[in-house]
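Board notes (copied after class):
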Amino acid sequence: MPFCNVGTYQNDVDAANNNGIQIFYRTYGCGPVKVLLIIGLAGTHDSWGPQIKGLAGTVTPNDDESLRTNIMAKDAIAVMDHLGWVKAHVFGHSMGAMIACKLAALAPDRVSSLALLNVTGGGYECIPKLDCQTLAIAIRFLRAKTPEQRAAVDLDTHYSKEYLEEYVGLKTRRTILYKEYVKNISATGLQSSYGFEGQKNACWTHKMSRKELDSICAAGFPILVIHGRHDIIARLCHAKRLTEKLYPSARMVELQGGHLVSHERTKEVNDSLLELIKESESAITLNDWTNLPKKSTGCKATGISFCKAEYERRSCFSFMVDIVKKLRTFLLYFFGLFDLAFEHIRGALRNIKLVRVEPILR
């Protein structure tokens, strides 16, 4: 979160008196008119919410980390512009699938079809499968300092155990792939901590709003979601949930494999991608494309419609979110007043002079 070091912009006397105070701030919008909002007693920046929306047209702060996948998606669009591509079939894997999803929401008219491999919805869905095996892999990943250590842990992260134990001639795939990984990592070097943290934060803060998903569905292009059943990084259940949200535009394909199912099941993945391209260029309807059970919720090729139950569910969720926000504001206000009262009482007690009473002897 952004902070201003107050002393940096004050004279020596004022800077010495502020005891290194840092002030939290946020900016909204990007217009030429600047407005400084100062909140009152025990309030927070959220208290200005209605005015921020009215003045800036948005309540999403400019420093919101969820904008990172937006930035990456715009970078991808810039590459298309550089190449002179008006439209393209957009395929993404893992974090790349999150970026592809954002791209499709930002510029649906530039997408001929969308393929999402080993994808999740971001945020808490980035939490991997929680078991002893995954925990051990995570610890090894954090401790990996050499190409050899990183290669060993990457194999267990990327592929299913069954695939690595298969023999190719006299050697297992693990042995063959390990040498390739060590060679490639040694050539390029380990990823910088700064780059890894940036990508990790982009995944953690990535989210697709209902409005964005609706705009993707309304565009009318087919979507293919491919996932490995043994993926310990991006869990299959989250990919299924995203696919259902994209009904009837999406088709779900589950394959035996891990996070790099595109390497484990190359032929099946390539055949599915080629079919996606072929069908997107034909006159196939989305109802014929999807392999999901027919349902009344979701988005339609001719527009957006939701059943009453779905509307009520979302209304209930929005109500609960609003209640939580208001409760948070109330607690901040309450404890702010409590802290203020406590400081006032403590200050008053400091000023009380204790008087010693001598006993009177008769």
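Comment from the instructor: The two ends are 70 Å apart (CA to CA). Confidence is low (pLDDT under 50) at residues 300-311.
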